Structure prediction request, 812 residues.
Amino acid sequence: MPILTTETFAANARAALGDVQLRGALRNATSQFGIRRLAAANGLPNWQDLRTEARAIKDKVLLNLDKYLEQFVTNAESCGAKIHWARDAEEANQIVCGLANERGARKIVKSKSMVTEEIHLNVALETQGLEVIETDLGEYIIQLAGEAPSHIIAPAIHKTKKQIAELFTAKLGMEPTDDVDRLTSVARRVLRQRFAAADIGISGVNFAIAETGTILILENEGNVRLTTSLPKVHIAVMGIEKILPRFADLDVFLKLLPRSGTGQQLTTYQSLITGKKRKESDEGPEELHIVLLDNGRSRMLAHPVTRQALACIRCGACLNACPVYQQIGGHAYGSVYPGPIGAVITPQLIGLSKAAQLPYASSLCGACREVCPVKIDIPELLLHLRAEITEGVDRRQGQEAGAGAGAGAGVAIKKKRMEGVAFKVFATVMGSPGLYEWNAKVGRLFQRFVMRDGRIGRVGATLSRFAPPLGAWTSARDMRPIAPRSFRELWRDGLADESKE
Amino acid sequence: MIEGSYLIDYCDATLWSAVTCHRFGQSRPVATMIRLSLLGGLRRQAAEGQSGDRSPHSKELQRRDKELMERERNIAARDAILGSIREHLAASAQHDAVHAEGEHKVGFKVADLDVKLSPPNGISPSLIDIFSENLKAVGGHTVVARNENDVAAAVTGIISDLQKTPLRARRIALSDAPALNRFTRQIAVDVDEITTSPSAAELFDYDVGISTAQAAIAETGTLVLESELERHRLVSLVPPVHIAIVEAADICLTLGEALAAVGRGSDLSPTITLITGPSRTADIELTLAIGVHGPQELFVIVNEGPPIQAR
Prediction:
């Protein structure tokens, strides 16, 4: 399977659209998730108030992030957790690899975590000769298949049970079956041995509480509990934006996250972990390490519009609601974070020039904004990023141009300048009734050459070159021609005459 | 040898001063200076005292050197990240004024957001009814017991029923809750073994885990387990069946009430676990499968009678 990147988004998307099996799986999954989310949200009469409250809490955190982080660190350390600060992915990977090597660890079990996907931790650990096993069923499946997750909360959503059965037969030597319970129990049996033998457990973090130093992880399967209970060392990796001020704030977020993600009132397990074990007779790890990762997040604080993206609690609701994601799935985005939220986070994390197509992977319909439990205005963010691309304001561009690596970006930005000129012309024409009418007449004169059965179908390559938007629009749909007579003409001639005809 | 241990003490002093710098938010140049001077000394010492005879201390020194460097890296990273946060928030100030900040206001008390259940037919349902209804919805079972004997009878019933299924229920693991030990004497069913707090490795071979729960949440059908009060983290997780005993008086209506009850500031348990039903997954074609990594059966026995815990 080719590695898809953000830079080849358009080609990835076209390939995904041709994959009938994938589109069937996506239709099934996104619609089911959508229905369940709606039912769960409707079960709470004050859903909208909860969303407002959640966003207010997140805004407060982000505007005082330095203070809350310091408070969290002080409290977590006083409970025996060890805090590691990581400026970027490489530093985070070095920290985790270092911890593993110092302890002579060989075997690592992992629970599902988007942030460790973001920093490609597994690759880093495997390079050091360590064995890493994903224990979430969906993650385990895609790890066996050598693929990347395609959905934030259901990583193997793109695979059918038939494909999974074939995978298990090939990799685990299991009898072919299409029984989901049977597949699940095989995974349970194999993974139990891994849990029993693991030296280190690595997890993500859903929320971190500043006033208590607690980290909280949600799940349904029980693999997070095993990962954070059985091995002697627990390493939790979290983005710096995961902080909540008070323990009581969990009430709001535990109402919103499961309902938005899977449509559950509450996921099966919540593990609230406050430090390492205290007495020798206690169960649980002897060491708790928390890695705080920046990796481009602090940069997003620089503007209220971009800052919104840090309020995200990774529920995946915007993926299910998005008409683009529904058709192409997660892999086409070429980034760890897919869908609408991915289209606004990825360019900010890896640089606009590397993901310049993603902010355009949207019809701006606003469905993502409607379902977002923390009221992130994703369309506003998409427009903001598009504006930055058009204006060539790439935060990383300066460095890249200096290093001579910005050639591709230069072409893209030049294209955007042309677009700027086109819009100036458009504005001039629209601003003058005389010019507008003259243009309409000329257009009517020429459109007959491309019209067929009263519609404009796919325009030829030559015309596309002169008017790229026309080519882009008609490549997949018909266009309405300019009417034979405009409203102004009809009005001048008298509407009454027209109705008699 | 004496020199070696002296060195380690010296090393400790330096570590301490680095940490002190860190605590008081001092800049890293101080720590760096101390470290560099120390490293110079260390390497000289190592070069002098070495030549063939590698003492166990040199390895220890290496480790401490590494540890020191890691501390310094951590302080540098922390300063850089906090600095970047402050810098970018400051840059945002001009936009914040224009952009309607504070559009989302923290206003109401969260407790006001909780659903007030309206009693159907004028009879308000008991917390036990609400709890059992919600637990049933996620595939768990509730048994109501009127007293301690009733609880033991319920455990007996559940185990003998399970023995007719492929789940066997021959080996029973108990948490260290004192009350549980008493029940084991009253369980009137043939089992191979009943053990209190088996080790983590042994637990994989048990069929049933029995614990108590410190609280329950009616509106979600959830159990609340506090690890400081009972050794039930693995007993409630590893065996394929979990039986939990909860006092009726410990059932709260809402999640918010339960969080307020456990969130007593500094004395939070190292682990608080909320459990809502048996382990589940829908990772394959969104088809629900029960019992993937945790228990596939969850039974909750609610004791309506006098509390059985304290004795």
Remarks:
- The two ends of chain B are 57 Å apart (CA to CA).
- The helical segments of chain B are 2-23, 28-49, 56-98, 127-137, 148-162, 178-186, 200-203, 255-262.
- Chain B touches chain A through 77 residues (CB under 8 Å).
